[in-house]
Amino acid sequence: MDAKVLSKNGKELRSVALDDAVFAREVSDGAIYHAIRNELANIRVGTAATKTRGLVKFSGRKPWRQKGTGRARAGSRRSPIWVGGGTIFGPLPRDYSYRMPRKMKRAAIHSILSQKAQDGDMLVVEDFSVDSGKTRDLVSVLRGVTDAKKVVLVTAKDDVLLKRAARNIPWLQFLNWNRLRAHDLFYAQKIVVMESAAQQLSGHTTEGEV
Questions:
Q1: How far is CA 71 from its chain centroid?
Q2: Is-contact 130 137, C-beta < 8 A?
Q3: Cβ(2)–Cβ(17) under 8 Å?
Q4: Which residue, 100, 160, 178, 195, could crosslink 209 as a Cys pair with Cβ 3.0–4.6 Å?
């Protein structure tokens, strides 16, 4: 697959050859679904909790005698059928995270990249940096390439100044090429991939963290 490399001003500079196994493969909807579901489950905070009858603070004394009152028998005020009593089968703190096969996760990432490339929603841009580390300088660069309301920027290496400039932009997600997230890629309107990052992705079709 050949992709056009854009300058920071949005002008076409040259073409670059990308691996079809990453950017032009058959899209697997199932892999995408499971990858997004896995990411959402792993960040889920399972802190919801209710008190069972063993946790409710009430006296253990029998409310009234067993017979002779005309009322139904009752053994504890902590009973779930009483107001203020314990909860039956309520939620308890738990861990929702689980591991996903690496090959399936890789297939999901490649499927999303391929889908975005087919739809024209992936842009390859020449490598750039923001030496000032200021948000407005990065915004001016991105707006020269796209005016999308939700953008993912994929870089080849950790750039401290670039990351500093990106952290205050609410519509931008900053990802490294070997730490991609299926959820962010799938729901992005435009994926801006730096040229070196695209080459790194092309060279890691069978190995790596993606």
A1: 56
A2: yes
A3: yes
A4: 178
The structure's pTM equals 0.83
Give backbone dihedrals phi and psi of 68, rounded to 5 degrees, phi first: 95, -5
Taking the C-alpha atoms of residue 141 and residue 39, their distance in angstroms, rounded to an integer, is: 30
Domain coordinates in residue numbering, the chain: 2-42+100-202, 45-95
φ, ψ at 35 (rounded to 5°) = -65, -45
Say which CATH architecture domain 2-42+100-202 belongs to.
3-Layer(aba) Sandwich (3.40)
pLDDT of residue 117: 93
Return d(Cα 101, Cα 153) in angstroms, integer. Answer: 25
Question: What is the C-alpha separation between 153 and 174, in angstroms, rounded?
Answer: 5
Per-residue pLDDT of 55-101, as tens digits, reads 999 988 999 999 999 999 999 999 999 999 999 999 999 999 999 99
List, for the chain, all residue ranges whose pLDDT scores fall below the cut of 50. 206-209
